[in-house]
C-alpha cells in the first residue's frame, strides 16, 4: 500500500514528490495520490512548477497530464499516469467533502497549510475518526498547519488522535497510526493470486484486465467459443456521458466512466479504425435539453466553466453540420466517442496474466476441500479453480446466484437472489455498407444519439469485404432473452431513426426495404435502478465471490470504471470514484434492501398475541 491523501495544499510540490518517488516503480501495485483542492489547479502554473522541478524530464509528465486536463469541474477526477500504474485522484471539493469521499487504505496523509484557513474547522473528534477510518497500521500523518491552528482546537485534536490510536512522532506535527486493538490482518486487502472471471464481455474483460495488471493470474471462462460472443459483440457503440438537469449521481458516475473508457481506448485501440473520439451530438427529440441547469446559467461560477468540455448546447452551425433540421434542440458532447466493443474486449484480454477458455459454460460454483472456488459445468466437471470468482456473465449471472443462494440456505425469489434481480434487456441494431447508399451526403459526419443512435463513416471489415458502414438502433425489449435477430424489429429501428435523424432515415429507407440493412441483436442485463452491481457478495460462506454485472445499455460508458472499482475493493485501494458514488454500485445496496424486506415480511406475518386465541 502506497497511497497518499493531500488535503488543503494548493502547491503541487507534494504531488511532484510522489510522482518522482514512484515513477520508476515496476511492481504490480497501483499507487494513488488523492489531491484535494478547492478549484482545479491552473494548467500553466502546474506546467511551470513541473518544468522548474524536473527540467526536460518533466516533459514526460506534462505529456501524460495534458490529455487529462479537461472537464475539471467540482467533483472527483481519476487521471491515470505511467501506464495506469500511478493514479492522480483530483478531488475538487471542500476538504471536509474530500475527506468523507475518500476510500481505501491510505499510507500517508498531509494536512496542508491552507487547512487552518478553512471557514469553519471540523470537530476535532470527527476529524480524528475520519482520518483513522482511512488509515491502516503504519499510516503516517503530517500537518503543515499546526502553528496556525487555535490552541484550544489543537489540544482537543491531539487528545482525539491519541484516543484513536495515533502516536506522536519526533518530527513536529507528525503522527503514526498504531491502534493496538485492531489487528493488522483485518485491515489488509488481498494479495495477488488466482481468479476466475465468468463472462468475456466488456465487464468480464475489464475486470480481468484490472486484476491482471495488479499481478493476478486470471482465467476467463465463457460459454461461447470466442470472447465478446454476447452483447459485447455489438459492431460499434457510442460512449456518451449521461446528462440530467439536476446533474444526478448517475450523471456523475457516467462522467467518471467515460473518462476511464476514453483513456483505456486511447491506450489499447487504433484511433480511426477501432475507435474515434470526435464527439457526439445528442438530439433532444422532445425539444427539452437535459443539460445540467447550473452549467448553462448566466451567472455560473468560474469552477463550472470547464463543464462545456463535457457538454454544451449545440450551436446552429453544429446542428447544421449534423444534417438535422434548423432549430433542433441538441447537446454537443465534445468528449464522446464511437468504439468497436469486440476490438476492445480482445485488447483487454491480451494483457499478460489472462488466459481465455471458451466453450466453458459455468452452471454452478462450489468450494473445494482446500477452500478454493471451483467453477463447474453441467456435468459437474471442474472448468477452473481459483481463490476468487468474478461473476460477469450478464443475465446468466442470475442463475449462478440462485444456485449459490440454494447451496448456502439463503431464501431466493424466482426472479432474484440476495435481493439482486437481474433483468434481461434485448437490443437489436441495423447496419449496412455505406457505398450502397445513394444519398451518402444525408448521413451525419459524426454520430448522433437521442432516441436511439446513428453513426456513419466507420471503417469496417467482415470476411473479405472492407469499406465503411452505417449503424443505427437500438430496440429495447425488456424481459426478452432471445439473442437472435428479428426481421419484424427492423421497422421499429427505422421508425426511431425517422424521429432521430429524418435525412438519414430517408437515405437509408431503400436499404431497409430491399433487405440491404443487416440485423444484429444481443441480450444485456440490467437492474431495477439501472445501475450495475460491483464488488464483493458480502454473505457469510461466500467470501471470495465478486460481481461485476448489470451494465445494461451503459456497458461502454461504465465497464472500465467498474473493473477498476472491483480491483480497488479487492486490494483496499482508493476507489476510482468518491464514496457516495461507489456505494451506488455496490452489491451491498441490494443485500441491505433484501434484509429490510425480510424483516418487514416477518413482522407483518406475526400473529398479534391478543389474536392468538
Would you give an account of this structure?
The protein has 613 residues and is of the alpha/beta class. Strands 13, 14, 15, 24, 25, 26, 27, 28 and 29 form a nine-stranded mixed sheet that branches. It has an eight-stranded mixed sheet with strand order 3-4-2-1-5-6-8-7, sandwiched between helices. Helix 13 runs antiparallel to helix 14 (502-513). The longest helix has 20 residues, at 249-268. The protein is globular. 43% of the residues are buried.
Radius of gyration: 26 Å
Low-confidence stretches: 608-613
Q: Determine the number of helices (DSSP H or I, runs of at least 4 residues).
A: 17
Largest sheet, strands/sense/barrel: 9 strands, mixed
pLDDT averaged residue by residue? 92
Helix content: 25-40%
- Terminal Cα span: 63 Å
Extended strand count? 31
Brief rundown of the structure:
Helices cover 31% and strands 25% of the residues. It has 17 helices and 31 strands. Strands 13, 14, 15, 24, 25, 26, 27, 28 and 29 form a nine-stranded mixed β-sheet that branches. It has an eight-stranded mixed β-sheet with strand order 3-4-2-1-5-6-8-7, sandwiched between helices. It has a six-stranded mixed β-sheet with strand order 17-10-9-21-31-30, with helices on one face.
